[in-house]
């Protein structure tokens, strides 16, 4: 038998991009919450809170009062990002044991898959590779978007230096409170503020790279497990010579695994339902704010590279969970059809038929991740895009 599941197939190593990012920002559920972690977390929280306060002050005390709605919308985007990454960190802290348990279950499934037949091993390997691609998508998107902000500042400073008129260029154009505004262009103060915003940029990147692929990876793993059950139940009644007792045992194993899958989905819903409701609402506003920044730059004859990259990252932020939740729902529907067409009508054992009936009844309920008010799927993503476009039109009518 060809082996597609190797000895080193573990969640930690297979999806190392996401797990490494979480270890860098100390949000990984395996990181012990000891004194060292509390010091590190305190420093991260202080820098993030300082950026949040400075951004909020600049919006309220300067941008809105001066009617500079383009800069206000730019800083609102960063405020939402600052709040979002802190909220995601809190989710990992609050549900640390639960997330650890989900990772353990995935590792156990990988361990069990070593004894599967070649076809089932191919399914597990296929969905694991899809999970790796999710990590790669987020790594490229988040890193390329965040890198534009410091690179643009360095390039503009280098350009001014080459022209003989050196000028300090911050990562974010902010108005600071009190005396800090008067001294923000003093080299020492400028370097401190630049390092603070650079650290915030790195921290935000690590949170998006580490946190956002996790739930899609779990959903893909569930799709693989359901496909395996789909394959098994389609073979359950294929051989009429198999004794009823063997059929009952095989069916019992399928039902037990199916119950584990339902419980896995419920845990994901418990942990992340509020978060995805929050993500849907923030994405509804982030998309038009980014689009407004891009169109305003184009009107001024400029190309706003940082917010063009940000626009694609914002789309990815909600599209990816919608896409994979939709895939999970489709896989669950395919499994329901597989139960119905497995050949149960040719069998006479009443206990087996009752079990099939119960499975069909339970499978009517869609297997999908949801927000508080609606299921996360491609239809929800399309509805969110329609709301964002309406807000963008209002912004253009009011401020353009």
Characterise this structure.
By secondary structure, the protein is an all-alpha fold. Helix content is 77%, strand content 0%. The chain has 13 helices and no strands. Belongs to the insect chemoreceptor superfamily. Heteromeric odorant receptor channel (TC 1.A.69) family.
Topology:
Blueprint: H1 11-14, H2 16-24, H3 35-63, H4 69-94, H5 96-113, H6 118-162, H7 179-182, H8 187-211, H9 214-234, H10 244-299, H11 305-340, H12 350-363, H13 378-399
Helix pairs in contact: 2-8, 3-4, 3-8, 4-8, 4-10, 6-8, 6-9, 6-11, 9-10, 9-11, 10-11, 10-12, 10-13, 11-12, 11-13
Largest sheet: none
Which structural category do the helix and sheet elements fall into? Answer: mainly alpha
Please trace the helix and strand order, writing H or E for each element.
HHHHHHHHHHHHH
Total of domains: 1
Rg estimate, integer Å: 25 Å
Average per-residue pLDDT, rounded, comes to 87
- Contiguous uncertain segments of 5+ residues: none
- The geometry reads as elongated
Protein name: Odorant receptor
Keywords: Cell membrane, Membrane, Olfaction, Receptor, Sensory transduction, Transducer, Transmembrane, Transmembrane helix
Family: Belongs to the insect chemoreceptor superfamily. Heteromeric odorant receptor channel (TC 1.A.69) family.
GO molecular function: odorant binding; olfactory receptor activity
Index terms:
single chain, 400 residues, mainly alpha, elongated, 13 helices
In short:
The protein is mostly helical and 400 residues long.
């Amino acid at each position: 038998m060809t082996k597609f599941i190797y000895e080193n197939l573990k969640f930690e190593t297979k999806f190392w991009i996401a797990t490494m990012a979480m270890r860098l920002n100390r949000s990984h559920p395996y990181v012990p919450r000891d004194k060292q972690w509390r010091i590190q977390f305190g420093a991260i929280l202080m820098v993030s809170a300082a950026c949040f306060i400075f951004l909020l002050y600049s919006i309220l005390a300067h941008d809105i009062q001066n009617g500079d709605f383009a800069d206000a919308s730019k800083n609102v985007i960063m405020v939402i990002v600052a709040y979002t990454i802190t909220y995601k960190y809190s989710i990992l802290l609050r549900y640390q044991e639960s997330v650890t348990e989900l990772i353990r279950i995935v590792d156990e499934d990988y361990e069990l898959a070593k004894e599967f037949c070649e076809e089932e091993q191919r399914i597990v390997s296929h969905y694991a590779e899809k999970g790796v691609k999710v990590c790669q998508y987020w790594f490229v998107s988040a890193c390329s978007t965040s890198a534009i902000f410091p690179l643009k500042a360095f390039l503009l400073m280098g350009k001014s230096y080459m022209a003989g008129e050196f000028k300090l260029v911050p990562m974010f154009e902010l108005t600071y409170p009190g005396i800090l505004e008067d001294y923000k262009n003093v080299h020492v103060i400028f370097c401190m503020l630049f390092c603070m915003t650079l650290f915030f940029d790195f921290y935000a990147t690590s949170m998006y790279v580490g946190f956002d692929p996790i739930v899609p990876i779990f959903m893909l793993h569930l799709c693989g497990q359901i496909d395996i059950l789909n394959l098994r139940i389609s073979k359950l009644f294929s051989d009429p010579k198999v004794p009823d007792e063997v059929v009952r045992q095989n069916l019992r194993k399928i039902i037990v695994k199916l119950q584990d899958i339902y419980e896995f989905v419920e845990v994901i819903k418990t942990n992340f339902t509020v978060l995805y409701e929050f993500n849907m609402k923030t994405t509804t506003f982030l998309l038009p704010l980014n689009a407004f920044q891009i169109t305003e730059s184009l009107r001024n004859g400029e190309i706003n590279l940082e917010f063009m990259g940000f626009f694609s990252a914002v789309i990815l932020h909600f599209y990816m969970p919608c896409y994979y939740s939709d895939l999970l729902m489709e896989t669950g529907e395919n499994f329901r059809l597989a139960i119905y067409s497995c050949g149960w009508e040719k069998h006479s054992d009443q206990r087996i038929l009752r079990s099939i009936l119960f499975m069909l009844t339970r499978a009517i309920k869609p297997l999908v991740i949801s927000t508080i008010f609606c299921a996360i799927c491609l239809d929800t993503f399309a509805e969110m895009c329609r709301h964002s476009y309406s807000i963008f039109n209002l912004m253009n009518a009011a401020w353009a």
